[in-house]
Amino acid sequence: MRIDCPMCGSRDRREYYYQGGAVMLARPAPDAGEAAWDDYLHLRENPAGETEELWQHDGGCGAWLVVTRDTVSHEISNVALAEDVKRAMRKAS
Amino acid sequence: MVELIQISPCAGLLPITLGSVTLDEQDVGRLTSLSPFGDASDLSAALEKAHGCTWPKPNRSTGKDGGRCIWFGRDEALLIGPAPDMGLAKHGAVVDQSDAWAVVSLAGPGAVDVLARLVPVDLRDAAFKRGHTVRTQVMHMNASITKLGTDHLMIMVFRSMAGTLVYDLKGAMAAVASRG
């Protein structure tokens, strides 16, 4: 398995660390309520299909990445810097 | 006062020559981590004025022996050689890391074949030219590898891993040499 790091280029999976679903980028407001926080901290989707995940290129440039991966075929359709994704989310809100 | 004796990270371990490849420690002078505050353009200008090398693009290095700047990760570069001009601190974080890294050179025909056994990146001349640099792994150690010329590479790992680096490279050198 190889991941196309936006900074370093195509690299072997061993250089990366897997964190989990990319939901961590969408932190609820402090007063969002118990349900929203419970969801954010504990509940995760488990789709058979396309999913967004956070990976860190810790054996390379050190950047956090949002990787769009199909859990059925393992095909990776998109890789973006988490920094850019978060910036776009801020701009949109 | 206690008299402290300075020893280099690979003291007593190097040099080693096996087959056509030689592994030796490099004394490169000062190592300084640079991280720009925001955009790197001001830092690049200050760097060029003081040390004659610009801010490197990802996977590239600038300058030459005695004043080299290598890309060292996201928004980070390493100035190798000179003591940093303190004017740089206006445009970015300047951190001395001289004692934190073990720096070795691997040179001779077949040096790339040795690293091919340990590093998951194509380091042959066709893909990795003089002045190119990568952050990657040597076995399980995070490393920085820079090509100084054909069959001549500079490898850096954390100082605490100097012994492991020499052990792993020695094993790979012996394996390549035994193939003749």
From TrEMBL, chain A:
Gene Ontology molecular function: sarcosine oxidase activity
GO BP field: tetrahydrofolate metabolic process
InterPro entries (UniProt xref): SoxD, SoxD_sf
Cited Pfam families: SoxD (PF04267)
Span of the signal peptide: none
Protein known as: Sarcosine oxidase subunit delta
Automatic annotation (TrEMBL), chain B:
Protein's UniProt name: Sarcosine oxidase subunit gamma
InterPro entries documented for this protein: TrmE/GcvT-like
